[in-house]
Fold:
Amino acid sequence: MATAELPALEASSGSTLSSRLNWLRAGVLGANDGIVSTAGIVMGVAGATASDTALLVAGLAGLVAGALSMATGEYVSVSTQRDTERATTLRIRRRLSRDPHREKASLAKVFASEGLSENLSHQVAEELSAKDPVAAHARFEMNYDPEELTNPWHAAWASMLSFTLGALIPLIAMVASPQTWRVPATVLAVVAALALTGSVSAGLGGAPRGRAVGRVVVGGLLAMLGTYAIGALVGLFV
Structure:
């Protein structure tokens, strides 16, 4: 009996861990977006003018617009996923009500494809189906947990918060530094922040940290260089 129950426990634990890692990875990426996009905005404005008001207004506008855009996009995306998973759960219930034996055999095939013997596959399918057939099919055939559907509001708030925290770094560095040090201070703050987010993101995915940090830092530097150059060019004609 214990052997047959083990896959269900492992699947539930793995699903929870994967969900938490996805949330953390999304938070890191949201912060990274906030850093790069806001840094690009304030660097572009700094290239065109030395006005404290212009820098603050542009930076705050970019922060608010970006945070709301991230929250809206995340809400829509997660809501769509949640609706899809609910619809899938309903289809599973219908199939089980029509032909439970066929669905049980289908579940056994999933375990057999993972290397379990035919007898053990049927035993596992039998015991899981006796406990909660809908959850068993959702987890092992459709790869989601019907009891742990993501809340779109939680996703929206988390995305907005992570973007805001990231955006505050270049904004504060730019407006709080003396005028002659604004650009280099912002560049240093952004490089340090991107190195941190790149390292954390690589660690979560098990990828080489050096390569990931290098990519995100170079991308951030190119974004700041490009927007600063455009701002300086516009400033010549304004």
About this structure: Confidence is low (pLDDT under 50) at residues 1-13. The CA atoms of residues 17 and 145 lie 12 Å apart. The chain has one domain: 2-11+32-237. The radius of gyration is 25 Å.
